[in-house]
Write a structure and sequence with these properties.
Blueprint (H helix, E strand, L loop, with lengths): L12 H9 L7 E6 L8 E9 L12 E8 L11 E11 L1 H4 L4 H15 L4 E14 L9 E13 L4 H14 L21
Antiparallel strand pairs: 1-2, 2-3, 3-4, 4-6, 5-6
Helix pairs in contact: 3-4
Length: 196
């Protein structure tokens, strides 16, 4: 059996950015380029992804995410290299799932598993997983209870950038209840609670 070799690292930020812009995603994830945050690195590219988006440019009620690719040839010490990826993903949940004490651990594991399954080497990872429970009162009482999971993470990528972006896209879909291979499967309306 042939030995797996990780994809080559980009030689410039422009090369990495063009590779991200050329990527294709599953049909039920709409990805678009958005303005990158300023001041984090000399070069940055940002994308947003929405699961089964209903209106262009608006966060999906099923799940949404953001990814920022940063490049600094001066290799900031916390990065331990010239590249850094910062990502965010969130999705509404059934209130019963939101109370699961292992939910935050599962969300982090989905990210690291997605990276590993694509042979996307990484180091210097950090992040937080937050679950939120909410209950409506007064004029919002009819909306009932709600829950949400949110993951914020960053890591320094090794090799090509595309596998890291693919892993982020899988994470966004997994949080929204769409595991790999579930394209075209109907989603339950009850997941549409958007409290947070």
């Amino acid at each position: 059996m042939a030995e797996h070799r990780p994809p080559a690292a980009p030689t410039s930020f422009e090369q990495a950015a063009e590779a991200v812009r050329a990527m294709e995603f599953r049909e039920d994830l709409t990805v678009r380029e958005i303005p990158a945050p300023q001041g984090l690195a000399p070069s940055a590219l940002a994308i947003a992804g929405d699961v089964r988006a209903e209106a262009e440019g608006e966060d999906s009620p099923y799940g949404t995410g953001r990814l920022v690719l940063l490049h600094d040839p001066d290799e900031p010490a916390p990065w331990n290299g010239p590249w850094r990826i910062v990502c965010f993903a969130q999705a509404p949940l059934e209130p019963e799932i939101g109370t699961d004490p292992l939910l935050a651990d599962v969300a982090w594991a989905w990210l690291t598993d997605a990276l590993q399954s694509r042979h996307a080497g990484f180091h210097s990872a950090s992040g937080t997983a937050t679950k939120t429970l909410s209950k409506g009162f007064g004029t919002l009482a009819d909306e009932g209870d709600g829950a949400q999971i949110e993951l914020r993470a960053s890591w320094s990528p090794e090799g090509a950038i595309a596998p890291h972006v693919e892993a982020w896209a899988e994470l966004v879909c997994m949080l929204a209840g769409l595991p790999p291979g579930s394209e075209g499967i109907a989603m339950l309306d009850s997941r549409r609670t958007t409290r947070g």
